[in-house]
Amino acid sequence: MPYVIRRPKPRAARAAALIASALVALAFPALASAAGCPSTPTTKPFKPYGDSANYSLAPSGAFEGGASGWALSGAAVVAGNESYYLHGTADTRSLAISPAGTAVSPAFCVSVDHPSFRFFARRTGGTWGTLVVKLRWRDSAGRTNDTTVGAINAASTSWQLSPRLALATTLPLWQSGQTLSVQIVFDPEDYGGAFAIDDVYIDPYTKG
Q1: CATH number of the domain that 72 lies in?
Q2: What does the alpha-carbon distance between residue 149 and residue 167 come to, in Å, rounded to a whole number?
Q3: What is the pTM of this model?
Q4: Model confidence over 45-83: pLDDT tens digits?
Q5: 159 lies in which domain range?
Q6: What are the b/e assignments for 128-155, b being 16+ CB within 10 Å?
Q7: Tally of domains in the chain
C-alpha cells in the first residue's frame, strides 16, 4: 500500500503557527537580556606602568566633583591628589577613609568582559594598616554577597598603584551576555591605619 501524506487541517495549521510565534516571542526577551553591559569611553591610563590595557573610570572614581553615588561611612573627599596625576594634571582631590570607615562605589555593570580593576592608595595615618577590597553583588535569589578580592598593605605613606584586582573572574559569570550589578567596597582593617584612594579604573577588555 502506498504511503499517504496527510496535510494538516486548517485549524491544526493555525495552532501550529500560533505555537511557533509564541516560541519566537519568548526567544527575543532572552536575547535582549543577554545584550551585555553598555560600552564606556576608555583610555590607557596605566601604560607608563607597563599595563597597556584599556580602562574606564569608575563612577565618580577621580573624586574631583565629589563622591556622587558613593556610600561613605567615616570617609570624605579631601584636598590632595594622588602624586602621579593619572586622571589629569589639574586634579586636586582624593577620598580619605578612616580606620573604622568604609567607602562603597556606585553600582556598575560587570560582564565576563570586565576582568579587573585598579586604583591608587596610600596609608595616611597609623603605623600599619591593611585596606581590604571587596566586591558587593546580588545573586539570583536577591541575597547580597561580599567577595574579598584583595588587600593593600601599606608600609609607607606614599601613593602606590594597586595590582590588577580580579573582577568578573570572582563572580558567577560564565557566558558572554551575562551581567551583574556590582559595587567596590574599600574597608580598612579596624584599629589599623587610615587610607586614601584615588583614580579607580575598571578594565572593560576593550581592544584598541
Answers
A1: 2.60.120.260
A2: 8
A3: 0.81
A4: 999 999 999 999 999 999 999 999 999 999 999 999 999
A5: 47-203
A6: ebbbbbbbbbeeeeeeeeeeebeebebe
A7: 1
